[in-house]
């Protein structure tokens, strides 16, 4: 795989064969390492990935949306807040085929909100009719909040 295959575009998964996952191991040069060029440790702790100006944690275990949010809180983070199409494409590619909770939740009054209190303005397509959002390589959708899925935490890098 060459660096062209690692560029993040909306259609970049189209070259994958059925069942093949795209993730960070396929494109190691695309993601920032935890060590800077002058030898100082970068702003994201171990097991966290820096992209743009955020640190992301991709869980290896599964739990409900609420427990996942609690887990993120323990690390000073929230379930992932997605601010741009670049962030969305990065997260989908890094997550691969597994479903991962993100921070969007459908409140009682039918308004989707991020953990930071901002209302979701439908800038990306989301399917499903449940209360909690998840993403994977191909989709952003919703599921029952009690379902056990992987999750993604996000926080600002320092």
UniProtKB/TrEMBL annotation:
Name the keywords, alphabetized. Answer: Lectin, Membrane, Signal-anchor, Transmembrane, Transmembrane helix
Q: How does it sit in the membrane?
A: Single-pass type II membrane protein
Give the CDD domains listed for this entry.
CLECT_NK_receptors_like (cd03593)
Instruction: Give an example GO cellular component term for this record.
Output: plasma membrane
Subcellular localization(s) per the UniProt record: Cell membrane
Q: What SUPFAM superfamilies does the entry give?
A: C-type lectin-like (SSF56436)
Recall the GO molecular function terms of this protein's record: carbohydrate binding
Output the PROSITE patterns linked to this UniProt entry. C_TYPE_LECTIN_2
Report the principal subcellular site.
membrane
SMART domains this protein is in? Answer: CLECT
Q: Which InterPro entries match?
A: C-type_lectin-like, C-type_lectin-like/link_sf, C-type_lectin/matrix_domain, CTDL_fold, NKR-like_CTLD
Q: Which residues form the C-type lectin domain?
A: 51-154
Instruction: Kindly provide the name given to this protein in its UniProt entry.
Output: CD69 antigen
